[in-house]
Each structure stands twice: as structure tokens, then as C-alpha cells.
Amino acid sequence: MLELLAHAQHREALPGVPSGVWDIDPAHSVVGFSVRHLMSKVRGTFSAYEGRIEIADDPLQSQAEVEIQLASVNTGNEMRDGHLRTSDFFHVEQHPTMRFVSTGLREADGTWVLDGELTIRGTTRDVEIGLEFLGYDPTGQQGEPRIGFEGHTSIHRSDFGITFGLDGGKVVVGDKIDILLEIEATLAD
User: Fold this and answer.
1) Which position has the higher pLDDT, 121 or 59?
2) Host domain of residue 8
3) In the chain, how many domains are there?
4) Which stretches does DSSP call E strand in the chain?
5) pTM for the model
């Protein structure tokens, strides 16, 4: 009985959202980051990515998968973006994509947490993404159902073998990367 009540409570957290596969809409989503650069922060985005969200009847059984083309990085500075693509950072010639695959969804202190594995430069680490459900529109802009989520997490680039500039001297680019996800997705046909 408690399991049935928990299932109903989880379902209420996504009111009216049908289960199924949802495709992330890059035209209405943002995969962004910020990192310390000297005494300020640099913000950037990735413009080329694709992903799917599978919402299960029990939302806690839902899954997500995203693949990001690292060459699509954009910080608003072409020289910096070029440097990020080199072996000092992403090494896009050998590792063109960054990939996230969820391993679970849970509630913690009244919020959603998406657990998963993030792979950058061939190194995979566990990450936790705090999620906020932004809403569901059954008719969307063109008659297609849409859902929205916002996610936040932080990673350390050194955990993925990206250690350029972290040799103990003056830190030009910080180790901690804050990640912001603003995701809108449409129900797949």
C-alpha cells in the first residue's frame, strides 16, 4: 500500500505529463556552463547536442541520455573557443563528444535529483543534477506536447583529466565548472 501511495505521489510531481519518450529541442534549450577565469567568470554554451528523456509511469524509473558535440562550444570569444577545442581542454579531435546517461532519479529534500554518468575525454564520473520541473503544455507551440526542466550541477574538470593551468601556479581557469541546463522537450512520434 505504501508503494502505491509513493507511486501516486511521484506521479503528482509531474501533473498531466504522459509517460513516453521526449526529444530535447535544442532550439528551445540551453546547455550552459560557467567557470572562474582570473577574478571573474566566463560563461559558455554548447549549440550542437541531442538527447532523449523517457518518462516512465513511475517517474522515479525515468531515464535521460544526452550527447553534446564539444566543437560547438561558444563562450563569445573565438580564440578562447579554439583553445577549448585543443588537447589542453576538450581535445575534440580524439574526443568529439561529451555524453550523459542517467542511472536513476530520486527525491531529496523535496527536490528531484537525476543521478548519472558523465563522460568527457574518455573518463566517466558519477554526477548528480538537481532538477526543477518547469511545466507541461499539452498543445505546445505547434500542437505538440512539451515539457520543461531546469538542472544544475557542478563538476571538477580535473576529475576528467583536464588539468591545464592547475599546476599550483596562478589559476587562470578554475577547476570547478558550474553547469546549467534549461531543457524543453517534445513528445516523440
Assistant:
1) 121
2) 2-187
3) 1
4) 20-24, 30-37, 40-46, 49-55, 63-69, 73-74, 97-108, 111-120, 123-137, 146-156, 173-187
5) 0.90
